[in-house]
Amino acid sequence: MADVKWSIKAREFVNCNCSYGCPCQFNGLPSYGNCEAVSAMQIDEGIHGNTRLDGLRFVGIFRWPGAIHEGKGEAAVVIDERANEAQRNALLRILTGQDTEPGATIFQVFSTTFEKLHEPIFAAIDFEVDIDHRKGRAAVRGVTEGHGEPIKNPVTGAGHRVRIDIPNGFEYSLAEIGRGWTTVSRPMQFTLADSYAQFAHVNLCQSGIVR
Predict the structure, then answer these.
(1) Which residue, 8, 65, 13, is CA-closest to 39?
(2) Is the Cβ–Cβ distance between 130 and 136 less than 8 Å?
(3) Angle at the Cα of 80 (from 9 to 187), degrees rounded to 5?
(4) How does pLDDT run across 59-111, given as a tens digit for each residue?
(5) Does residue 122 contact residue 79 with C-beta atoms inside 8 Å?
(6) What would you report as the CA-atom Rg of the chain, rounded to the nearest whole angstrom?
(7) Which of 97, 137, 200, 202 is the most exposed place for a label (fewest CB within 10 A)?
(8) Which residues are CB-neighbours of 155 under 8 A, at least 6 positions away?
């Protein structure tokens, strides 16, 4: 069992380089052989031990040369500059898979696949997400900027709604799916264009999804 108990209720906007369906969500291989992704969250309610995390934001930047489970990944974390020292330490422990049961959360699972973890960045994070309408924006000056929107019907141009339901997942239970565009400038560089995006409520603790 994890020594320190924690929990977060958050809203997320994620953009990766896969096609709209993202085979990774179905235990398939990534659309183009490799994986590049940016994930942004705002914690509405959160706690780590005795440290409150309400209202804080963070961004994860990820890149793997192949499928995620094959490892050799690279990652960077941006922590909300408003966080005090205790909150920074708490978030870094959660996001690097510490104080978490093995395999319980996306943070812990991902942490086992990295061979390079960059020094954390502490900066202002602009973040907006409307999960029901499949819209989002995440920006950190000089680091990354991205936005998401609904998938469009190719004939009528109307918004296309589709969801992914994962009852036994380690990140979300239900996600709204859209498309996104993101540019990453540092500490790695890549661009995502009209690719998979997800918008979801996240409710996690040291033992996994809170149901």
Answers:
(1) 13
(2) yes
(3) 115
(4) 999 999 999 999 999 999 999 999 999 999 999 999 999 999 999 999 999 99
(5) yes
(6) 16
(7) 137
(8) none
Calculate ∠ Cα 104-106-111, nearest 5°.
Answer: 100
The answer to whether the predicted template modeling score (pTM) of the entire model surpasses 0.90 is yes
Neighbouring CB atoms inside 10 A of 5's CB total: 13
- Asked whether 9 and 45 are in contact (CB, 8 A), the reply is yes
First to last CA, the chain: 19
Token pair of 81 as six digits: 């500059």
Reported as a single tens digit per residue, the pLDDT across 2-45 is 678 999 999 999 999 999 999 999 999 999 999 999 999 999 99
Distance separating alpha carbons of residues 183 and 149, to the nearest angstrom:
16
What amino acid occupies position 192?
Answer: L
Query: Could you give the 3-state DSSP secondary structure of residue 135?
Result: strand
Residue-wise burial string across 27-56, b where 16 or more C-beta atoms lie within 10 A, e elsewhere: eebbbeebbbbbbbbbbbebbbeebebeeb
What's the one-letter identity of residue 199?
A: F
Cα–Cα distance measured from residue 173 to residue 60, given in angstroms and rounded to the nearest whole number:
20
